[in-house]
Task: inverse folding
């Protein structure tokens, strides 16, 4: 596996996370974010599990499913941080940083799976 794809995923994930966490948490925006997270995760699972796929002949479908699941994961991390920021306005500065670090978990899992294969 080329290092370009995971590096791009990390970069896009961290930028997206920063954009989602930056504004102050409000009720309407949180509901919209929750809906987007649910939509991305369900679409990723749909493409991965429901639609028949042969990864050898159609790697684009597998990459699209993984990208949707990753975007859902990043959105979920941002949603949790936004909910915590709304409930506890005096949240320590390390909490959003911990959320940003959690966006790296799927990419680390990808590297671990490749190393064990």
Result:
């Amino acid at each position: 596996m080329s290092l370009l794809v995971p590096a791009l995923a990390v970069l896009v994930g961290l930028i997206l996370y920063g954009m989602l966490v930056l504004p102050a948490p409000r009720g309407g925006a949180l509901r919209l974010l929750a809906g987007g997270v649910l939509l991305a995760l369900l679409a990723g699972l749909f493409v991965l599990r429901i639609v028949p796929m042969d990864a050898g002949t159609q790697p684009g479908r597998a990459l699209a499913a993984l990208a949707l699941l990753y975007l859902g994961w990043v959105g979920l991390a941002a949603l949790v941080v936004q909910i915590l920021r709304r409930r506890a306005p005096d949240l320590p500065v390390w909490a959003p940083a911990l959320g940003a670090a959690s966006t790296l978990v799927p990419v680390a899992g990808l590297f671990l799976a490749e190393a064990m294969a």
